């Protein structure tokens, strides 16, 4: 919600407008997002604890990111990580955007990270707002309730590299 959702919308717009340059598209989207994000008031319930926050953005992810990069080694850790971008105006948003690019976002004083196994977010203004789900932007009304369903998804993936590969002429038993 907030800055991250606006950034996703602006990025899609900029990619259509500047198809020849990803860097120009990113800079265009980042600049517009930094300038035009408005703070949102959200009531949060994380693992039974309620809090009211005013933030430029709220990001909910499955499992914690490893280190400074936006990567996870596993998706089955059984918890959410919630990132709250403090309202500080365009300068703080610009600093956080720059720290996201350079990998120093975990140390930003404008970013608060929490963990929990259940998260509910409710916009205080009761309006429908733009929300990004795995990169896709939708306009929805809150509340947004996030719950984990362990083992609910089976993934078919390539074999890990440590398993031996079979020659092309090998016939698997039927």
Describe the structure.
The chain is of the alpha+beta class and 174 residues long. It has a domain at 38-147: Tumour Suppressor Smad4, CATH 2.60.200.40. Helix content is 25%, strand content 31%. The strands form two sheets. The protein has a six-stranded antiparallel sheet. The chain is globular. The mean pLDDT is 79.
Concise overview:
This protein has 174 residues and is of the alpha+beta class. It contains 3 helices and 8 strands; from the N terminus they run ααβββαβββββ.
Task: Spell out the key features of this protein.
single chain, 174 residues, alpha+beta, Tumour Suppressor Smad4, 6-stranded antiparallel beta sheet, two-stranded antiparallel ribbon, 8 strands, 25% helix, 31% strand, globular
The CATH architecture of the domain at 38-147 would be: Sandwich
Instruction: Provide the structure class.
Output: alpha+beta
Order of helices and strands: HHEEEHEEEEE
Q: CATH class of the domain at 38-147, anyone?
A: Mainly Beta
Mean pLDDT value: 79
């Amino acid at each position: 919600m907030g800055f991250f959702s606006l950034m996703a919308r602006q990025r899609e717009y900029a990619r259509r407008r500047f198809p020849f340059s990803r860097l120009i598209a990113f800079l265009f989207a980042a600049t517009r997002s930094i300038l035009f994000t408005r703070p949102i008031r959200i009531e949060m319930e994380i693992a039974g604890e309620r809090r009211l926050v005013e933030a430029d953005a709220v990001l909910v992810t499955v499992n914690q990111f490893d280190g400074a990069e936006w990567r996870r080694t596993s998706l089955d850790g059984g918890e959410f990580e919630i990132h709250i971008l403090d309202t500080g105006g365009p300068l703080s948003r610009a600093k956080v955007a720059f720290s996201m690019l350079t990998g120093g976002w975990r140390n930003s004083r404008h970013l608060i990270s929490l963990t929990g196994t259940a998260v509910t977010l409710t916009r205080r203004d009761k309006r429908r707002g733009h929300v990004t789900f795995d990169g896709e932007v939708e306009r929805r009304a809150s509340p947004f309730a996030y719950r984990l369903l362990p083992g609910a998804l089976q993934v078919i993936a390539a074999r890990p590299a440590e398993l031996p590969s079979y020659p092309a002429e090998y016939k698997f038993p039927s």
